[in-house]
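Late entry, coenzyme A complex.
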Amino acid sequence: MAIKLKGTGRALPDRVVTNEELVALVDTSDEWIRERTGIGSRHVSTGETVADLAVAAAKKALEDAGATGDEVELILVASCSSEMALPCVACQVQSAIGAHKAVAFDLNAACSGFLFAMHTADAYMASGIYHNALVIGAEVLSKIVNWEDRGTCILFGDGAGAAYFAKDPESQTPLPYVQRSDGTKGQVLACGQHAHKNAFYEGEDNLQYVTMDGREVFRFATRQVPEAILELLGKTALEPDDIDCYVLHQANRRIIESIAKRLQVDIAKFPSNVERVGNTSSASIPILLDELRKEGRIKPGMKVVLSGFGAGLTYGACLLELS
Ligand code: COA
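Prediction complete; structure with ligand written out below:
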């Protein structure tokens, strides 16, 4: 495989919001939220921006890898909630870590964003264009969520995760990947954050928040993700049970359980932090990856499947062999 995972890091806002606190905002209960989603609390920004969290996670990933900013050749940030349209978050990270020779840009594929960014980095490295990459997922979803909508505000959290990859000089082979988008289902999970407003527009300032057809998203994830994972493993000689660990996008415990069941793999191979972190969209996979590495639950020699799914609709899976 062309790339090796060298280091990971994560950053979460200090403020933790429990389900009980949400009861004061919307008609819900801790019991309902836990039963339907597995979520007990989430971290919420009290001022931290997407760039603040991305920079903090990036610094930890570089430290973990024993690398410095001036070595970094490519910085990709996956995000759908940056406060700044310009400059992109990746350029803000570049400046903060002193990665003067890096190329930096953002990419938005919602909750599949980290995976799609990783695939992009992998393709650049396999083709020999860059020799390393810092891939980051960072979100402050709390500002695009409607805190009066009990169907969505209970689900999401803020945070960032980062992974530093280096090219394996002895391999040109890209990681096994499955990556899909279905734009015809875009309205199932949408957010019109940037209102239509210019000097010639006479309509209302129609700032919008996240809207979601929860049941449709649930059906999509529980059908498409196991299929994508099986298609991925079909590209290798591996069976679902040969995988040591499945690091899935942390949207909902019931979705993860359903995917494990469809693959007929022990749920113990599907670690989850959704109870403490909620759904952090593009940040969720690298946050969990970092937790698992730091806790020693994933180690060199292990085969790890990463899988993301979300708005777009987008979804995908890849196989990472840790060394
Ligand atoms: N607290 C209490 N009741 C709630 C509620 C909340 N936070 N949110 C919705 N309800 C109510 C609904 O209004 C509905 O009431 P009604 O029967 O009186 O109309 C009832 O609970 C059932 O709603 P429904 O939407 O059918 O619930 P559900 O079992 O599908 O669970 C989700 C809702 C959102 C938890 C579930 O659909 C889900 O997890 N979907 C996937 C969402 C997701 O992961 N999105 C991100 C993907 S990246």
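The radius of gyration is 19 Å. Will revisit in the morning.
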